[in-house]
């Protein structure tokens, strides 16, 4: 089994929709290739988001039968084919002509068809919509793949009290702090930061009433980064950056002078 086949099975596993044979093959490959586990983690998170906070809603009459009929129908261009011939809606037998009911189905048509990851999540999104979910798999995928710092920056910029302040650094770089009191978050966007040694990290700080509070570390390999400060910001905080040992200051306090210091204020 290659990684692409494993990724497809991981999608089905997240939806509890694998056949017994496929589940055994999936579990075997999972033990043999721990480096592929990220597919399982990502798909499980997607499935969880699809099910999160979804109220129980009775589907309209006939929806279940129609969906099962669609799943069981032979594949067509642009449509999902059958996952297995073991899945057949009650109506299917009634729809066959009398001269077809006793016909022997060729062996090749009874073999389970493996769906691709796109097909699994197209089905998941369809099921979510049927129970009243107001957003789809495309949104979930975007949220999973978009860095938290970018998501936070979008939240801040969309807030009515969004504020930003830019400073020029002594070595020619630029840093812009974005914050919103209503969102309670702050993001620092930098360009032109100097490269650090392997044993160093940039560390973010909220300086509140003169006391520095660590807000996480970040890297800027090419001098540019978008970094979300850990913790909630408060109006009047100073957003600062220092150069510390790799992983952050060992003392929990800044060990160097800040290279960035941007004061926030009330909106």
Describe this structure in words.
With 267 residues, this protein is of the alpha+beta class. Helices cover 35% and strands 20% of the residues. It contains nine helices and eight strands. Helix 1 packs across helix 2, helix 1 packs parallel to helix 3 and helix 1 packs parallel to helix 7. The chain has a four-stranded antiparallel sheet with strand order 1-2-3-6, covered by helices on one side. The chain has a four-stranded antiparallel sheet with strand order 5-4-7-8, with no helix packed on it. The longest helix has 15 residues. It is elongated, with a radius of gyration of 27 Å.
Q: Which key phrases capture this entry?
A:
267 residues; four-stranded antiparallel sheet; single chain
Portion in strands: 15-25%
Number of strands: 8
Count of alpha/pi helices: 9
Question: Outline, from the CA principal axes?
Answer: elongated
How much is the average pLDDT?
75
Profile the largest sheet.
4 strands, antiparallel
Provide the spatial order of strands within the biggest beta sheet.
1-2-3-6
- Return the string of H and E elements: HHHHHHHHHEEEEEEEE
The N- and C-terminal alpha carbons lie at a distance of 57 Å
- Classify the helix fraction into a percent range: 25-40%
Write down the Rg: 27 Å
What are the low-pLDDT stretches, counting only 5+ consecutive residues below 50? 75-113, 129-140
Output the structural class.
Answer: alpha+beta
Oligomer: single chain
């Amino acid at each position: 089994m290659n990684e692409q086949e494993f990724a497809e099975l991981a999608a089905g596993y997240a939806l509890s929709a694998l056949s017994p044979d496929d589940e055994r093959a999936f579990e075997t490959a999972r033990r043999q290739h721990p480096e592929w586990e990220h597919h399982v983690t990502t798909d499980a998170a997607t499935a969880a988001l699809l099910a999160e906070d979804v109220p129980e809603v009775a589907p309209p009459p006939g929806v279940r039968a129609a969906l099962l009929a669609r799943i069981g129908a032979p594949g067509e261009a642009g449509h999902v084919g059958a996952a297995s011939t073991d899945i057949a809606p009650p109506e299917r037998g009634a729809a066959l002509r009398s001269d077809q009911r006793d016909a022997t189905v060729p062996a090749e048509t009874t073999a389970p068809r493996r769906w691709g990851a796109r097909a699994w999540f197209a089905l998941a999104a369809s099921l979510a919509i049927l129970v009243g979910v107001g957003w789809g798999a495309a949104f979930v995928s975007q949220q999973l793949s978009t860095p938290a710092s970018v998501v936070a920056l979008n939240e801040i910029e969309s807030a009515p009290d969004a504020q930003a302040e830019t400073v020029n650094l002594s070595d020619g770089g630029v840093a812009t702090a974005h914050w919103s009191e209503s969102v309670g978050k702050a993001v620092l966007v930098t360009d032109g930061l100097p490269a650090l040694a392997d044993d160093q990290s940039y560390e973010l700080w909220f300086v509140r009433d003169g006391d520095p509070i660590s807000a996480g570390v970040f890297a800027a390999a090419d001098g540019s980064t978008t970094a979300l400060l850990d913790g909630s910001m408060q109006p009047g905080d100073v957003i600062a950056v220092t150069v510390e040992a790799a992983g952050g200051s060992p003392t929990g306090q800044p060990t160097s002078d800040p290279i960035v210091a941007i004061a926030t204020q009330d909106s």
